[in-house]
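Hi Y.,

Following your request, here is the sequence exactly as I used it, all 113 residues.
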Amino acid sequence: MQEFYGLQKELFTATLALTGIIFFSVWMFYNLNIALNYLIGACTGVVYLRMLGKDVERLSNQSAKLSKTRFALFIGLIIVASQWNQLQIMPIFLGFLTYKAAIIVYMLRTLQS
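Below is the corresponding structure, written out as tokens. Let me know if you'd prefer a different format.
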């Protein structure tokens, strides 16, 4: 379990670092509104990653099945973004996928060592 907690911490750290870098890059090259939309998606992605980590932790201890409430978080985010005129779907969606970029960065680092 120590290895799992280390991986979880490393993924959170990488996700937060990528979120900061991408947020400021989007703010510089586009505008603050798009950057904030990205940040909303990225924060939701971090919550999703945390929920996924909790599900995996429970999987090893108690149940043999993953929860599906994580998907409700993403679906709710997209529905709110499509209904609210100030929000833009594409930056929010790409922000949500930031946790996947962190997983790819982790995978590439482990392949090199």
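The longest helix spans residues 32-61.

Thanks again,
Q.
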